[in-house]
Structure formats: structure tokens, C-alpha cells
Amino acid sequence: MLKADRVAALRERVRVETVIDAQSRVIRSGASGLLVQLPADVRVDAMLATRCYDRLAGATIDFFPSGMSCGGVIALTRSGLGYEVRVNWLTGGVDVVPHQPL
Questions:
Q1: pLDDT in tens, 50-99
Q2: Exposed end of the chain (fewer CB within 10 Å): N or C?
Q3: Cβ neighbours of residue 18 closer than 8 Å, sequence gap 6 or more
């Protein structure tokens, strides 16, 4: 979904906001409106920019027509195992890597 939102921002030449509601475990596409509801046993932690291009962000990962983004990390864990979805602020690239608990 994050990759699709990035592509939509590039193709349509508009800012696209992916909404991350970690508490409710819901992620919503800004391009398609598609919702992903994660199961109750999946813990969702999000580290998102509080400000992006002089505006409050906090609950979104924004993708820009330039290919850049506000960036962020979404950690998904269950039973001590999990993955991080990382969005690079400079390139807007999306990577999924094993989660390294603190």
C-alpha cells in the first residue's frame, strides 16, 4: 500500500498521505482509500515525523511528486517476532526488514 501511494504521488504529481493509526491498528491509503485492519494480536508501533514541510504530520507518511516523503517506520510485532516497514524520507523508498526489539 505504501509503495502504491508513492507511485500515485509520482504519477499524479500530487502529495499523497498514508494514514497510520497505530492505536487502532489501521492503515489507510491516501491514493485509493483502501483500509488495512491489522489483527488484534499484532502490535503496531509507528515512528513518524511530527512536522513535514512546515506543517504538522504525526499520523501520516506523506509522499510527494518529487519522489521524496516525510519518512517513517512502522513496526509490526506478534509473539516477539516482527518486521519494520521503513520509508526513506529522501527517496520515498519502502523497505521491509526484520524487527530488532530494543
A1: 888 777 778 999 999 999 999 999 999 999 899 999 999 999 999 999 98
A2: C
A3: 1, 2, 5, 27, 28, 29, 30, 60, 61, 62, 63
